[in-house]
Specification:
CATH class of one domain: Alpha Beta
Oligomer: single chain
Bound molecules: 5'-O-[(S)-ethoxy(hydroxy)phosphoryl]adenosine
Number of helices: 20
Distance between the termini: 39 Å
Number of strands: 30
CATH architecture of one domain: 2-Layer Sandwich
Structural class: alpha/beta
Helix content: 25-40%
Length: 669
């Protein structure tokens, strides 16, 4: 990589791009020859056609890739913009597409899920394999269980589960009867779970007694119990279904709580899929925004299904003989689209691993790849940087020759990590697909097609066919090559979010007002002279910590809800492993003694309010925070302080210059 060149164009928006990368990796011949998309000329023609008429392109995808109980005749309906409708007069069921249609072929006896638990007992780890036929049976039964608990089409079901097969079963069972799932990541606190359950108005929570992570027990049912009793609880919840995973002791509310295995044993077999209109809601998934309240991103059925089915096949080049391991938890959108719906809709075999990469030792992932002979591996850059820091010994001890394709998602991958991934994990033989997308986009929008495209470390390359992405200035004008600006998508695509649950106005405000009428991603980007998109990170107050989106406002609200805190401001600083780390500037209430015990108490408080993923890496106490004359906290200054330790930028709008001095000297806990 060349050294940063300070004379390169500096963008508007304060987005400066200094990365220059000139290494390029063409598809290896033996990969290309077998790929779904292998003919560059054909792909060029496909792209041209898709750009000329994206709606026609996606209609063809919808027809080819999915089974419809009632075929659609309309492609895109944009009359209620920015709330898109795709394939609106069609009807289908996504569980039918992921399961039943494969069970009518030889794939009934093919493995759909191969799951491995974290603990390692005398006989090795627990492994469960579900064929498509077996997964269908479980889904049919659990759909019947949900119905017996009064869940009907349109009702919301909250899933708070470890990464176990029951998570996929419960998602698909909801889809089978038209219920809407809202998966809440098992690392979220009782407060976060309660807020999300209430916002969605969920009738049922599906959880487990416990799960395993890093060798310790996560007491999920206890968290659900807390969420249901403290601070007004969650009045919409009528039933809790509990998977027995860890066998830990739990409290029981008779009438409300039900064992998964008991209900499943009593459930009838063979429940038929309920056809739903294409625009029927499929799931809500909460994600961080710039305000304190998480947004319930709503995805619907037909468009989402078409998008994730096609992108899973094209980007991961999935074939029947593959074993696809996407390491994401089902609590994140990646787990929805590329652990469950995308791969299963293609009839692929998915590997699911419950636990952490360092348990019981730092080679667990590579042990899994070797034992199961994983062929396609998809993970996050933060994980890769962790593996790099652990050194090569845990890796070279294993045979990774089954791998043929690698992927990344969640944050920009620095070229050094990319090249390391390519050499050390991929043995120099596997293309790497850097996939850019978001909870809101439903599926991948920017990524290489690995059989035809040259990969360049650090860029997700170009938008997929049918995706019209652009880099623009604030007024929506396209920017020339190498100038940083706002990453937008100009044309609706089928997997796009339909709205924010219960808040249509917020959807419009958040995504379609910065550049009026055009989808704004919240990310900055630049395009190089080859047309490759380089993602420069968020331009709003959202942090990306270890691939998890965390709104600075969420952490601030949590901090100020502590009785000792008068005011708080949260910023990110670069971190070599997690990408960004959270730094909190806290002004204590009068008379409060600051120091390490308060810092620990506040970290614990944030963990309790949101979850461990939002725990600040650093807390600095300050007698005041720098503000503009209109009272806005000047985060830019705080970012400089957090990153460099001093402030060099413009401070002319600062209200109280003394504050900066105080911030510098009071420092740490
Ligand atoms: C970031 C995860 C650079 C980006 C699927 C985006 C990326 C946010 C990439 C969405 C990538 C995701 N390169 N940045 N390949 N993939 N991001 O909603 O800032 O959890 O807006 O969805 O992650 O995070 P989310």
């Amino acid at each position: 990589m060349s050294a940063p060149d300070p004379t390169r164009p500096v963008a508007n928006q304060d987005i400066t791009s200094i990365l220059v990368e000139d290494r390029a990796f063409a598809p290896p011949a033996d990969f290309a020859v077998r790929a779904h998309l292998a003919d560059p000329a054909a792909v060029r023609a496909l792209r041209e056609r898709a750009t000329a008429d994206p709606v026609d392109f996606w209609c063809e995808v919808g027809r080819q890739d999915l089974r419809w109980t009632k075929p659609f005749t309309v492609g895109l309906d944009w009359s209620d913009a920015p709330h898109a409708r795709w394939f609106a007069d069609g009807e289908l069921n996504l569980a039918d597409n992921c399961l039943d249609r494969h069970c009518q072929t030889w794939r009934r006896h093919k493995a759909a899920l191969i799951w491995e638990g974290e603990p390692i007992g005398d006989g090795g780890p627990e492994i469960r394999t579900l064929t498509y036929g077996q997964l269908l049976e479980q889904v049919q039964k659990f759909a019947a269980v949900l119905q017996s608990l009064g869940v009907a089409a349109g009702d919301r079901v909250c899933l708070y589960l470890p990464l176990i097969p029951e998570a996929a079963v419960a998602m698909l069972a909801c889809a089978r009867i038209g219920a809407v799932h809202s998966v809440v990541f098992g690392g979220f606190s009782a407060e976060a779970l309660r807020d999300r359950t209430n916002d969605a108005g969920a009738k049922v929570i599906v959880t487990a007694d416990g799960g395993y992570r890093r060798g310790s027990l996560l007491r999920l049912k206890d968290v659900v119990d807390q969420a249901l009793v403290q601070h007004g609880g969650a009045p919409s919840v009528e039933h809790v279904v509990v998977v027995r995973r860890a066998g830990n002791e739990i409290a029981w509310a008779p009438g409300r709580d039900h064992w998964w295995h008991e209900r499943m044993a009593a459930a009838p077999a063979g429940l038929a899929p309920v056809p739903v209109p294409a625009e029927h809601p499929l799931f809500i998934l909460y994600t961080s925004g710039t305000t304190g309240k998480p947004k319930g991103i709503l995805h619907t059925t037909g468009g989402y299904a078409a998008h994730v089915t096609r992108t899973a096949r094209w980007v991961f080049d999935l074939r029947d003989e593959d074993l696809f391991w996407c390491t994401a938890d089902v609590g994140w959108v990646t787990g929805h689209s590329y652990v469950v719906y995308g791969p299963l809709s293609n009839g692929a075999t998915v590997l699911m691993y419950e636990g952490a990469p360092a348990f019981p030792a730092k080679d667990r992932f590579w042990d899994i790849v070797q034992r199961h002979r994983v062929t396609v591996f998809y993970t996050a850059p933060t994980a890769l940087r962790t593996f790099m820091a652990w050194g090569e010994a845990p890796i070279v001890a294993h045979d990774l020759s089954s791998l043929r394709l690698l992927g990344t998602v969640g944050e920009p991958i620095n070229p050094a990590a990319w090249v390391w991934y390519h050499e050390v994990i991929g043995g120099g033989r596997c293309p790497i697909v850097d996939t850019w997308w978001q909870t809101e986009t439903g599926g991948i929008l920017i990524a290489p097609l690995p059989g035809v495209q040259t990969c360049v470390p650090g860029t997700a390359t170009v938008p997929l066919p049918g995706i019209v992405a652009d880099v623009v200035d604030n007024a929506g004008h396209p920017l020339p090559a190498d100038v940083g600006g706002l990453l937008v998508v100009r044309h609706p695509w089928p997997g796009m979010a339909r709205t924010v649950w219960g808040d249509r106005e917020r959807y419009k405000q958040t995504y379609f007002s910065r550049v009026p009428g055009i989808y704004f991603t919240g990310d900055g980007a630049r395009r190089d002279r080859h047309g490759n998109f380089w993602i420069l990170g968020r331009v709003d107050d959202v942090l990306n910590v270890a691939g998890h989106r965390i709104g600075t406002m969420e952490v601030e609200s949590a901090l100020v809800s502590h009785p000792d805190v008068a005011e708080a401001a949260v910023v990110g600083r670069p971190d070599p492993v997690t990408g960004q780390a959270i730094v909190a500037f806290v002004t204590p209430r009068a008379g409060v003694v600051t120091g390490p015990p308060l810092g620990e108490a506040l970290r614990g408080h944030v963990t309790k309010e949101i979850g461990g993923l939002a725990r600040p890496a650093e807390i600095r106490f300050a007698l005041g925070l720098p503000k503009t004359r209109s009272g806005k906290i000047m985060r830019r200054l705080l970012r400089e302080l957090a990153t460099q330790g001093t402030v060099t930028g413009d401070t002319t709008t600062l209200e109280d210059f003394g504050v900066l001095e105080k911030l510098r000297v009071t420092d740490e806990e």
